[in-house]
């Protein structure tokens, strides 16, 4: 069947699958398929994990920075002295 239509069999199978899943809403516009929501969810979950990791790193940097500033205040006695 696909050969008679001039397309590869996997393409026809994909179209049939998308039509079975989404009916008339499977193809909008010029044959653009409906976005795969599962892939979008996976992409967003991965992005969420990346952002959570970045957030943890930034929190640790901020904590380190605060400790460094605290240890180098005049009251700590650890401030560098300028020489005349």
What's the gyration radius in Å? 29 Å
Residue share in β-strands? under 5%
**Count of β-strands:** 2
Q: Characterize the biggest β-sheet.
A: 2 strands, antiparallel
Q: What coarse outline follows from CA principal-axis ratios?
A: rod-shaped
SSE string = HHEEH
Mean pLDDT: 83
- Please give the order of strands in the largest beta sheet: 1-2
Provide the low-confidence segments as ranges: none
Terminal-residue CA separation: 91 Å
Specify the helix fraction band. 55-70%
Count of helical regions: 3
Structural category is mainly alpha
Structure description:
63% of the residues lie in helices and 5% in strands. The chain has 84 residues and is mainly α. A two-stranded antiparallel sheet has the order 1-2. The longest helix has 35 residues, at 37-71. The model has no long low-confidence stretch (mean pLDDT 83).
Short recap of the structure:
The chain has three helices and two strands. It is mostly helical.
Write out key terms for the chains shown:
single chain; mainly alpha; 84 residues
Write the layout of secondary structure elements.
Layout: H1 2-5, H2 9-22, E1 27-28, E2 32-33, H3 37-71
Antiparallel strand pairs: 1-2
